[in-house]
């Protein structure tokens, strides 16, 4: 990985392309360019048969420069650094600050590429790429560009086991602001790979990580709770807080926090809803002995006619 700093002081981690992948991309681009050049040459020979030898040579030289030099420059400019060969190999040309290239960058790379790739059969470009720490050739050095890999293999992380149900919501009042990101990463890596570790080694690592978390939070781990379960519960609590912070209190009910109850509606407009799973439903009031079914009645006074409106209970 190569760390680049943008103009906004943002560090970017890019994976520079190495010589084998770059050489394959250049060969594909040259193969396509030669095929296009042969087709254009055949068309020019058929259309300039009446010209003299000097004129035909000038037309052929112009076609060579246009196809083999101007073509790659135009393609990299319009595609923002992705030619056909680079697109096939998953590569891209970017600026030193990680931004897309412009016409001037492609022009410098293409002009110097004529010397270090076409005229020297790629020897100068290979030597410069091997000497450079980031695999850059002379065209990249003078243009201020870098060829990076776009398709980076993603590391598969292990599944994080959920904590036991009896630990859900037990650490809701724990202060996790002092726990650094490096410790969170170590905990997630341990939880994802603890099934692959030796039981004794995994227990020692879990105790050490739990002790670090307890030291950062200022609250010791509960007695009788396995350290791995304690770590899983703390990680789940942190994820729940991040979800509430990102999506608001409305979606936090899925993480164990009860959302605000909506205002009560009249019986005629109320819609039945399933009881929430985060708590037991309130038992309805028991009817008095001998009473009939619950019913709301309206008392109609003789001075004022009835409106048919039933007030909410």
Molecular structure report:
It is a single chain. The chain is mainly alpha-helical and 313 residues long. It contains 9 helices and 4 strands. Strand 1 and strand 2 form a beta hairpin. The radius of gyration is 35 Å and the shape is rod-shaped. It starts with a strand and ends in a 66-residue tail after the last helix.
What are the main properties of this structure?
313 residues; mainly alpha; two-stranded antiparallel sheet; 4 strands; 47% helix; rod-shaped
List segments where confidence is low: pLDDT < 50 over at least 5 consecutive residues. Answer: 1-12, 250-306
**What's the SSE pattern?**
EEHHHEHHHEHHH
Tally of contiguous helical segments: 9
Query: If you average the pLDDT, what whole number results?
Result: 75
What fraction of the residues are assigned to beta strands by DSSP? 5-15%
Biggest sheet strand order reads 1-2
